[in-house]
Structure formats: C-alpha cells, structure tokens
Amino acid sequence: QVQLVESGGGLVQAGGSLRLSCAASGRTFSNYAMGWFRQAPGKEREFVASISCSGGNTNYADSAKGRFTISRDNAENTVYLQMISLKPEDTAVYYCASEKYAFCTVTGTAAAFGYWGQGTQVTVSS
Q: What is the C-alpha separation between 126 and 114, in angstroms, rounded?
C-alpha cells in the first residue's frame, strides 16, 4: 500500500521560506516520478512542480519558477519542496503525489499521479 506523508507546512510571513517534505512508502520510490500540487480555498487543484525518478529532470509551474525547488532523496524515500520568497497567493494546502505508473515522466498533469498525500497547509501572511 503506497503511503505519502507530507510535513513542513505552517504559517510564514510574506518573503519567508518553508521546506516541505513528503515521505513515501509501499513501493520502490526511485521508480516513480514525484510531484507537488496545491489547492487554495475555492480554487482548483494546480500543479506546482514535478521531478523525474533520478532527480535529473524537473518541471515547474510558472508561478513556482525561480522561487520553488523540488528535489528528492531516493535513499530516504523523500521528496522535498523548498519555497522561498513566499507570497500570500501561495497560501494553499500542498499535496505530494506519486506517479501512477513507472514512466518516470516529468509531467504537470494530475491524472498521471495515482497516489496522493493528505496535504499540508501553507499560510503566507501579508
């Protein structure tokens, strides 16, 4: 059974930083691309970033480029999202996701991800 557990969310002032972590278990972590999505109140879930199996390729939403960095540690079965220069519009629940099939593709399409964490709240105050 695949499990994804996020941590690291919280309340931060605008301009601040946070690092989210997502610990995965239940299958061979390094065989699957990973992603981060977010959902703000009243809005659709949106793609933030994704990373290939090896970590060599990444993909970012325009809103995340230059401020967020996705990385992974395959030895620790963990994916990270480092966020800097946070803005109030980054306020959302952030979800970690694992690729449905072992294609190792760096995609921003939610349908490609078959497993999701419970989410961690990020609140950025102005």
A: 35
Three-state DSSP class for residue 112: helix
Confidence of residue 49 (pLDDT cuts 50, 70, 90): very high
Q: How confident is the model at residue 86 (pLDDT cuts 50, 70, 90)?
A: very high
Cβ proximity of 34 and 50 under 8 Å: yes
96/4 Cα distance (integer angstroms): 7
Burial of 87 (0-12, 13-18, 19+ CB in 10 A): middle
Q: What tokens appear for 100 in the block?
A: 């449905």
- Give the pLDDT confidence score for residue 72 in this predicted structure: 98
Give whole-number Cα distances, 45 to 20, 23, 71, 102, 108, in Å: 17, 21, 21, 23, 11
Which residue matches tokens 């199996």?
53
Percent of the chain with pLDDT over 90: 99
